[in-house]
Design brief:
This protein has one domain: Rossmann fold, CATH 3.40.50. Helix content is 46%, strand content 15%. It has helices spanning 16-27, 39-49, 63-75, 100-128, 140-143, 149-169, 194-203, 212-223; strands at 7-11, 31-36, 53-57, 82-85, 132-136, 175-181, 234-237. A seven-stranded parallel beta sheet has the order 3-2-1-4-5-6-7, with helices on both faces. Strand 1, helix 1 and strand 2 (31-36) form a beta-alpha-beta unit. Helix 1 packs across helix 8, helix 3 runs parallel beside helix 4 (100-128) and helix 4 (100-128) packs parallel to helix 6. The chain starts with 6 loop residues before the first strand and ends in an 8-residue tail after the last strand. 45% of the residues are buried.
């Protein structure tokens, strides 16, 4: 896959799936705008990727910040070809133990964040003539996940949003697709308790976690011309943990 001459923006780019996605796009020749709320980690990640990566501080829950970023990108580099909404957050916890502040944060980061950033950047994607949007949801949204009720609901919203947006934007030559990772070896996953990590790993038929680079491969597929006849589609990458129609 060749992304030479394309400009790609990835949220959550300082670690995990987002970082692996930035690296994969750089390898494929793209210019990458790496966004993250952690400025120190984001700057370090962009510097490690070299001159084709640029860091932009962004908290996806900050609506004004999303639109300010869009204004900066309209001025320089003046184009955007691919948007990858990869930022996400969760803690595995029984729903009965959740507090309302927790719900608010989960929904703001995992659902409202992608919605408002997509809206802010949509004019640039339309102007490109062939914009691509890849949203990262979760297989928790497709089959449910104990201890992740609100997270699964928010990611289910991302799936529905992706499908609806795909229908709206297809005539503008914008494709919208969605990746649903299963358990993945990321810093966020590794903050979970050892028993939870072991249980999830053992439940996967392949008996291992996904590597972030394997999720990135799916993202690049949907962003590339190899998926030129795909829009509104959901791809699970879960080592066989979830087999859904």
């Amino acid at each position: 896959m060749n992304f030479a001459g394309r400009t790609v923006l990835v949220t959550g780019g300082a670690s995990g799936i987002g970082q692996a996605t930035c690296a994969a796009f750089i390898t494929a020749g793209a210019d990458v705008i790496l966004c993250d709320r952690n400025a120190e980690a984001g700057q370090a990640a962009a510097a490690a990727l070299g001159p084709k990566a640029r860091f932009e501080a962004l908290d996806v829950t900050d609506r004004a910040g999303c639109f300010a970023l869009a204004d900066r990108l309209a001025a320089s580099p003046g184009r955007l070809d691919v948007l990858v909404n990869a930022a996400g957050w969760d803690i595995i916890q029984p729903f009965i133990e959740n507090e309302p502040d927790f719900w608010d944060r989960v929904v703001a980061i995992n659902y409202i964040g992608p919605v408002q950033l997509t809206r802010a950047l949509l004019p640039l994607l339309v102007a490109s003539g062939s914009g691509r949007i890849v949203n990262v949801a979760s297989d928790a949204a497709r089959v449910g996940s104990s201890g992740e009720a609100v997270y699964a609901g928010a990611k289910g919203g991302v799936i529905a949003f992706s499908k609806s947006l795909a229908r709206e934007l297809v005539r503008k030559n914008i494709r919208v697709n969605c990746i649903c990772p299963g358990p993945t070896d990321t810093p966020l996953f590794n903050t979970q308790g050892e028993r939870i990590r072991e249980a999830l790993t053992n439940a996967i038929p392949m008996k291992r976690l996904a590597r972030p680079s394997e999720i990135a491969d799916g993202i690049l597929f949907f962003a590339s011309e190899r998926s030129s006849f795909c829009t509104g589609q959901i791809l699970s990458i879960s080592g066989g943990l979830t087999m859904v129609d």
